Amino acid sequence: MLPIALALLLALTPISPVLAASASEWASKSIYQLVTDRFATSINSSTPCDTSQRTYCGGSWAGITQHLDYIQDMGFDAVWISPISKNLDGTAYGDGYWLTDLDTTSSRFGTAQDLKNLSAALHARGMYLMLDVVVNHFAALPQNSSSSSLLSTASKTSLTSPLGDLLDISINYPDLLPLSNEADFHPACFIADYTNQTEVEQCWLGDERLPLPDVNTEDPDVVETLYKWIADMVKEYGVDGVRIDTVKHIRRAFWEGFTQRAGVFTLGEVETDNATYAASYLGAVDGVLDYPTWYKLIMAFASVSGNLSAIQDAPSLPSLASPPSSSSSSKSQPVLTGSFLENHDQPRFPSFTHDVALRKNAMVWPFVGDGLPIVYYGQEQGYEGGGDPSNREALWLSGYKSDKPGVALLKTLNGVRKQAIKANESFLATPAHWITQSEPSTIMLSKPPLLTLFTNVGANDSTYQPTWRIPAGLYAPGTTLIDVLACRAVAVGSGGNETAVAGGVVSEAEGAGKDAAREKKKKRDGASAEGETLVKAKGGMPQVLIPASMLSRSGDGVCPALATGPGEGAGREGTGAASMQSRVGRGLAVVGALGVVALL
What we know:
Helix content: 25-40%
Keywords: Calcium, Carbohydrate metabolism, Disulfide bond, Glycoprotein, Glycosidase, Hydrolase, Metal-binding, Signal
Region (Disordered): 513-534
Strand content: 15-25%
Catalytic activity: Endohydrolysis of (1->4)-alpha-D-glucosidic linkages in polysaccharides containing three or more (1->4)-alpha-linked D-glucose units
EC number: 3.2.1.1
Site (Transition state stabilizer): 345
């Protein structure tokens, strides 16, 4: 049952207004991605869900609405849900990506009003709704699979398989709505050569058992139908952003018009490890999922022998993007990428490694760089499913436990990112940069005021823990940095004088004593106190550092016992906040001899 207050609110909100319509308004958000059928049921059931069966398990839009506290409490302010359109019955898929009718919502997930209620509930919390859409193809069960004697009255089509043999498959095009003519689809052929862009765009996905007829997006009438559909859907359901499936399978020019007609932020899936290729779609859509870096991320942290330099050498997609055309709606908007570790198409990261330190290093990545953080549901509960369908587990079987380490980690990462955005008005626009380290098992990423220390040495090596070197000039001597993942203080210029705080609590007397000891050490060490700061790894865990002055002392903040910034009530225009912004602004203008930004 919905709480009475929420039920009344939703009853009085027939149409949910769109809260955001641009990339700039999405840049500060973090996204929780879920598969509707696997996140929550409407009746809070413990219904079993065997992912190997690839069938519906009972998740619904009403179920999501009832569990928004769970998502918001982890610090997420946007929810990406799987496609809503009617899917093919008779297939063993429950994820929403096998559409047959664009205009009709799937009754499997509830009513259209349930979806509007979800949108309204998100907006009432100041959260955004991102909708996954598929426009490249439809799904159709073939009328026959091998023999011409099985053909019905439906159109008969010859499909060329990747092996070159011809398969007679009958597609009942009138079942596909609103595009119900054979001419609305490309001539049938399966994609065999992914280096041939024409073939990628105009041949079919799927196979002879379940072909996916490829929409003819060169036909002007088809294009207008799709453009009108996205505009109507965004308005009808109060959609704030759109994630687009299989972007590389449709010509780039189509997406420019699609993005304009959507009128909201568009995030495209371009599944490739080629950064230049992925970046070529930026400008046609507002952002793309950063798949090229994801491949490097897996290489870096899937094992203790991973290649950390791979992720460090990965090019920035925005730096490779072509300027948007004069007609593009994204001409004056920031170029965004979606940074992720897991999603519904890839194996969950824990299926690669059981090392808790490697897992934690990888989970930190999406929150500390330039990308828009995206977390796939179940990651916080430690789900370990491999490839599809094993990675689409039912979340209700976890009990939505809030005391899991992954839940706490995501809450901290969301919290420190928000603090960094608040403290530094240039945070989102300032590109992150790598700081060279001498040990091959360490890398260091700076995005002021955040400094993130990664290692892939792992949790099980008790004989060796590497050391990071924070160069002189990156922070002013005497600055207290807080590792928010362990609530541990690091004094800049102390040569590695760290203050561990059990449980994140320290008494005033103890703090004063440590400050006095630190000052004595600085005087004793002289010039060395002004030099680089050494930070020793502990258990192979990553560290996310931020000046204590930029953390809030409020009880629900990040490491509040070590924070020296304003409390929750202090506004950006207040003396404390203004002072912090001024310090960060001055720091961004100073470049030391080592070529690193100095926070003064």
